[in-house]
Amino acid sequence: MKYTIAIDLGGTVVKIGLLYNGGIIDCIRLESERSMGLKSNLPRIKKAVEVILSRKNIGLEQISGIGLAFPGLVDPTNNRVISTNEKYDDACSFDLEKWAKENWDIPFHMDNDARLAVIGEWYQGAARGKNNVVMMTIGTGIGTGVVIDGKVLYGQHFQAGSLGGHFVLDYKGRSCSCGNKGCAEALASSFFLPVIIRQHPDLSDSFKEMAGQITFKEIFQMATDGDDDALLLRNECMDVWSAAIITYIHAYDPEVLILGGGVMNSAEVIIPYIKEKVYRLAWCPSEKVPIVPAELSENAALLGLEYRLTHQ
Ligand SMILES: [Zn+2]
Hints:
This protein has 312 residues and is an alpha/beta fold. The protein has 2 domains: 3-117 and 299-310, ATPase, nucleotide binding domain (Nucleotidyltransferase, domain 5, 2-Layer Sandwich), CATH 3.30.420.40; 128-294, Nucleotidyltransferase, domain 5. It contains 10 helices and 12 strands. The protein is globular and about 60 Å long. The two termini are 13 Å apart. It binds zinc ion (ZN). Residues 166, 176, 178, 180, 183, 185-186 line the site of zinc ion.
């Protein structure tokens, strides 16, 4: 058993972890500069890897490989970014495998971040021992990853299972950053929250003034405290997530559906609300699909990378 270095290139935070046998030995978190593109973030990431190896006194000969979780469409067989969506938009033209080889000369693996998160939860989180799994990560955007019949879903162009945030819930709805209209992500995600608040016909003017400043964390807190605007917005967003989940269940027929991402700090509100809605509306004659919070919180993609680098 060797150590693994895993990098999770998130929309707001980049995490660089040192892993060993399913555990995170060390981790550095950096504020991401996604608007600056990928290339400008790489020197800081390289430095963080060196800091971790040095302070844990670990040599490259003890490392099985280095992995990268990317928030876009990825071809993991060629280690290339296929397409981005307003996050690290220069990544398609960049050879990350070459970057890793030049810096460390150890095996490299990359994949979509939400797909790696489902692999992590499958490896040692909420989906251990299951053969049919859907994971929805509600972070800056909405990501999904799917395991069907014991295999991670990829499809012809490596995008199967990854585009749950862009399932259309309202074909006349708001334009999404992907070019489509009415995607789940455009209707209820952190990335779109300012515009969702500003364009909402029923929110008060004083609430709209907070658009761009408040996050789901504040909205859930305000709703708990009885603020009518926050309550309306919170419930509408949970309705969107529920509708998306019903579609995932219809599409993928999972035995468990895992919910992850930053909003799950409010799991005690979200899980019962979504369960009530999904169990009432989804066409599931055989049995109700358990809807459970992720167990690995923000570390799922890092652990998914460790699995990939040590089990191939
Ligand atoms: Zn979209």
